[in-house]
Write a structure and sequence with these properties.
By secondary structure, the protein is an alpha+beta fold. The protein has one domain: Nucleoside Triphosphate Pyrophosphohydrolase (Alpha-Beta Complex). Strands 1-2 form a two-stranded antiparallel sheet. A hairpin with a 5-residue loop joins strand 1 and strand 2. The longest helix has 14 residues.
């Protein structure tokens, strides 16, 4: 996030940079933080991460690999648990799926 960015504006920019897609923010899944969740990047940067997870809808662009992504695709919800991702990412997706299920609000 840049000092002049808003949180939703940062999400829109990051999605574009990492996926090539233009999105419109539609809601909030949640905020996530864990002081034990330390990320060490290959360039030597170390962070204690927090995450604000938004929902969005695609309004344009084209799905494209970037310097920050290695594979991009849309998947069915039942595939989520079989994908190689950090368990905290799976948690955020599960929270979204539960909250977007019919009758849940």
């Amino acid at each position: 996030m840049e000092m002049t960015d808003s949180l939703p504006g940062t999400a829109v920019r990051e999605v574009k940079e990492e996926t090539g897609l233009d999105v419109e923010i539609t809601g909030l899944v949640g905020t996530y933080t864990d002081p034990r969740h330390i990320i060490a990047y290959s360039d030597g940067e170390v962070r204690r991460q927090f995450n604000i997870c938004f929902t969005a809808r695609v309004v344009g662009g084209r799905l494209a690999i970037s310097d920050e992504s290695t594979e991009l695709r849309f998947v069915q919800p039942e595939e989520i648990d079989r994908l190689p991702m950090h368990h905290t990412q799976q948690l955020r997706i599960r929270h979204f799926l539960v909250r977007s299920a019919p009758g849940c609000r």
